[in-house]
């Protein structure tokens, strides 16, 4: 099982980034996918989630209207489009796949929002 995140980097406040998470080794289309983020000294925070078929999404209040989670089950990939980025969005972003008794994590990608 692998979840490989990409797309992180340094961006100025107000800018945009698109994170991708490529999955392999499991039946991607059966899993709920989520993006979490973590800053030093804090626990992981759920940022956004999407159901297995992509029919429903949810977001933490602080990113609503700015971030969009989506998935392409044909490509086994989940995305996080991040717009109007703020310094408070700086964190390591992790991809998560979850279904019943299975729970998989990626290695994380750093997002830094700074001028």
Search tags:
single chain; 115 residues; mainly beta; seven-stranded mixed beta sheet; four-stranded antiparallel beta sheet
3D architecture notes:
The protein is mainly β and 115 residues long. The chain has strands at 2-6, 9-11, 17-24, 32-38, 45-50, 57-59, 67-72, 77-82, 91-99, 102-105, 109-113.
Number of helices: 0
Overall geometric form: globular
Element pattern in H and E: EEEEEEEEEEE
Content of β-strand: over 45%
Q: SS-based structural class?
A: mainly beta
What is the residue-mean pLDDT, rounded to a whole number? Answer: 97
Largest sheet: 7 strands, mixed
Topology (elements, then pairings):
Blueprint: E1 2-6, E2 9-11, E3 17-24, E4 32-38, E5 45-50, E6 57-59, E7 67-72, E8 77-82, E9 91-99, E10 102-105, E11 109-113
Parallel strand pairs: 2-11
Antiparallel strand pairs: 1-3, 3-8, 4-5, 4-9, 5-6, 7-8, 9-10, 9-11
How would you summarize this macromolecular structure in one to three sentences?
The protein is built from no helices and 11 strands. With 115 residues, the protein is mainly beta. A hairpin with a 2-residue loop joins strand 9 and strand 10.
